[in-house]
What does this fold into?
Amino acid sequence: MISKKLAIEVLNAALETGADYAEIFYEDSSAHSVLIENGKVETSSSNSLCGVGLRLLKNNQCVYGYTNELTKKGLLALANSLNKSFHDKRLITVTKLDMIKCKNRNPVTRSYDDVPVEEKIALIREGIEEINSLKDPRIVRTFGSFADNKRFVAVFNSKEKWFKRTTEFGRMAFQVIAADQNGFETGFEGPGAQHSIEYFRTEKVNPRKTARKAAETALKMLTAAECPSGKMPVVIGNGWGGVLFHESCGHPLEASAVAKGLSCFSENNIGDYIASPIVSAVDDSTIPGEWGSIDIDDEGNLGSKRLLIKNGKLNDYMIDDLNGRRMDRQGNGACRRQNYRYVPTSRMSNTYICNGKSTPEEIIKATKLGLYAVGFNGGSVDPTTGEFNFGCSEAYIIRDGKIAEPVKGATLIGKGFEILKKIDMVANDLDLAQGMCGASSGSIRTNVGQPTLRVSEVTVGGRGGELK
Amino acid sequence: MGKYDKFFALAKEAGLEQVELSISEFRSLNISLFHGEVDEYKDNNGYAIVARGILNGKCGSASCDVWNKDKAAWLVKEIVANAKVIENDDPIFIFKGSEKYHKVNTYNKDLEKVSIDEKMKNLYALEKAMKGIDKRIVEVAGTEYSESTEKHTLMNSNGLNLVQKSNYFTFVGQCVAKEGEQTKSGYDFFLGNKFEEFNPEEFAKKIVKLTVDQLGGEACESNKYKAVLHPDVVTSLMRAYIGHANAEEVQKNSSLFIGKIGQKIASSKVTIEDKPLQKNVFARWFDDEGVATYNKPIIKNGKLETYLYNLTTAAKAGVQTTGNGYGGGSKRGIASSFLSLKPGKKSLDQLFEEVGNGVYITDVSGLHAGLNPQSGNFSLQSTGFMIENSKKGKPLDLITVSGNLLEIFKDVLEVGNDVTVSPSGVSAESLLIKKIVVSGK
It folds into this structure.
């Protein structure tokens, strides 16, 4: 940890040539992961990360550098190298640092420092036992892993503020590979949370349930036919289905895209209809213990709940201070980064479509012929054009209002702003699912989520020919 | 005393039989422009150490990014704790060294001499050129210059001490084109370590062309088409395909290449080589286990010649390692190095000639979601063009292409002569394919 006195000295050195903002981001984190493959502990690794990132802003310009040389000499050298980008007179002198107080909504009752690796192994083994109890010869390979991370961060900035926070999180994952004469299929489940290891032994989340689900998906997909292709109504399952909104609308509503006019929603104003009136969507970093929650963001703005879309109308964005300058807005607690090696920017936290009025059963019943997509591999988007894709790991055909045969290899594509307007039914079974989101400021923890919903028409790519 | 002696001494004290350090010291610079101004300037110095060690025949590992005596002690403590829980019985090696190494130079000292002004001049020129070429370009979304210098050291308690230094730079340009209601974006990378090879005007022309060419596109009828795949698409598919040559996947029953050595698995037009010693910025003359690398065909005229091995999988199979032990952690993984698809004789126009009517697929996205690496099945968001009467026709918008990796490489009718090296370290050409499933209208 660096002292406040040193922080003030480094900030003032950084500000010498006219920067209008300077910020020190100190990080000291440790991580551990253990992997069991085919029943045997295969790898166990520890990782420690410790460094400082220094960010200088002037108008719309950002200068950034990081170092592992955490001495006074090393930090001042970094400040004096970065400040060479500016050539004006000093605007700001930092004389004190006041602490920003924030709630701790994500306390871990037992630190991962106090969890022996044997306890994590025992947890994973339970899941592996569950898979083995299926005694299905088609299961050729199993993986179970537990990864945890403890992260201490301290931020000091030229607004004469500082804060520190410690976050801890864990993730349990199972992957199953099944094979028959036709080839291989995989199933994956990976719940995570900012909770201690006890969370992974609850009724909602436990190794047996998680591992069984992964195995069942792999086996089910082995018998699935190739997904048909073409345009069709698609019912998207709750939880992981939210990756559709994450890709198609979440990324284009980040200030990093909006501020520079590079988002497909850049030409829209707050209050414009960008979605069907039955759609409301939220990015909420304040849900206690959730995977994507943060109490305070990486530049010192408190975490918040942002109503992005209200009854179909554009209502808000995820904003960081720098991009906010181009938008005439303040940051709203969305500034995040993977670690000290990344320049922070506006990112999502827990992003979801809100509950509607239908039930999942009603939606299936109201669909004569279409696709029911429930498992997803993730996707990607070009925020400028809104063109997105996402791959389904588990899907079924809906025939005459009933869920029929499983299909595999489905990829959904479209343009975010068109898809949002085609959502014609939203159910009341909102759920969240955990993922890692990659963008310019690195790979961060985010939740996606939604209730079951229907899109009246989506282009589906698959190898199974026309849907009949 | 050497900087790392303390670590080796502590490891010995703790009873570790053998230990190894993989050390990366790097510096990187990134400058990006937006609307004629510096948008982001990054100057970073970093350090990363991965340590592993053997205790009672089991291997544990730990990594960090700061070096001092406390960290040395921490690494040893973690290696011991991690090794104690390992149950895997596979043989583990801390390598003594190969008899001979064929060094390839991947460091160009002249790149260090290029001034910041010179780099900025090229960035401004790139931005200006992208703006001026075509009226339909409504925005230059960004231009970026990056450079990276790395010194990679591998040292172990068996006396091995190997160092490879490398540097390279990249330019990236991205622009947005608009016509009517349609918006399209395009970007491209330039990667090299000889600064004089970069021409901002030529590069700008290429990016603008690939962006505006997409305008006016629409989906085609869903159907099977004869197709030409652009080298970028071939690169993506080839990486996933060659993943099945990984000996660990083979030994663990999850490869599509099991039992296929010596057999014909692809069209006889297909020869894919692993070329770590090719003279370019991707060259690696020792792998992450310290084994001397060498060039070899993986698939020759359609026939599978070899799997790719590291020391552990080679010992299990009773063969020599192929020098493909890559990746960090206690267990080295397996990866190909510089992959190269052997070029054919025909030009792109000649390939279009042979297609007559079909599709030309120029880009695929969402590989992490739409390609199942195990089954080889893929269904990917794509862009491209119709091929009509042997000529490149109207652009295609919002389509997916689907297929299976094994089938695609069996269905190769011709390999083009348009050698294209991608920034991901693959050399590929256009491929003429018998059929591909397109989902559109």
